Amino acid sequence: MGGSPDDKDFLNEDDREDAPREDEGRAGEESSTDSAAESVVDAADHDSSLVTRHSSLPLAVCLVSGGMDSCVTAAVAREENAALAFLHVSYGQRTERRERRAFDELADHYGVARRLATSVEHLARIGGSSLTDPAVPVAEANLSPREVPTSYVPFRNAHLLAIATSWAEVVGARRVYIGAVAEDSSGYPDCRPEFYEAFQRVVDVGTRPETRIEIRTPVIGLRKSEIVRRGLGLGAPLHLTWSCYQSETLACGRCDSCALRLRAFREAGLEDPAPYA
Predict the structure, then answer these.
(1) Domains of the chain, first to last
(2) Which terminus of the chain faces fewer neighbouring Cβ atoms within 10 Å, N or C?
(3) What is the CA radius of gyration of the chain?
(4) Which residues does residue 89 pair with via DSSP β-bridges, in sequence order?
(5) Phi, psi at 267, each rounded to 5°
(6) How far apart are CA 157 and CA 70, in angstroms?
(7) pLDDT tens track for 193-202
(8) Residues 234, 103, 197, 211: is their CA dihedral positive or negative?
């Protein structure tokens, strides 16, 4: 996921009540800094004030890292909901700028005006992952792991879901989408279905009594090649996504994420549009 924006850009829902649906909107641009600030970008008019009212449209929050799985998840969410809000969370990872670029381009593609980009960069200070700690090298791909790989960021997805749930409750969204994959993946413990089942109970207990937010994981049981085919069927812009763990220019082709992506496109009988070294 990408870099952190300024904390001054907030969407005013009072001013957006009569706004077009996001697939009719015009996406804008947002400046990025190294701070752990939050921003909501209204791509239509760049209003800057705090979110104060629920949207009048049925709404879903979709976590979008900029990778292939979140891209296809966003495509699914677009089919299932009247309106989307895109959430991007950086965590001090090696490729945060490139992932942020992918997020912006995906949001532009889908015409999503309601965007929140934020950071949990304390995960980089905590360390424990090759994605966030320069002292821990990114391992060569192992597509049959017997243990949790070094690229696992400890309990990361709980942080992402907590932010998504907070935002969803404020803007009145009824669903939160996340592109977690349990099958054909690196074996991260916070990508398992039982993790999301447990977190759903946390959401149910930890929000207002009248709040109803459903966590949805539409690709969690799919193989990567099936995700590619699903994305193709939905017209998902896979060429805009970025998967590499360690490079922001040309994908390395050697890390777990690159290897899984390359195999997925190969099994789907398609050429991967990502540039490789």
Answers:
(1) 4-267 (3.40.50.620)
(2) C
(3) 18
(4) 118
(5) -70, -30
(6) 13
(7) 999 999 999 9
(8) negative
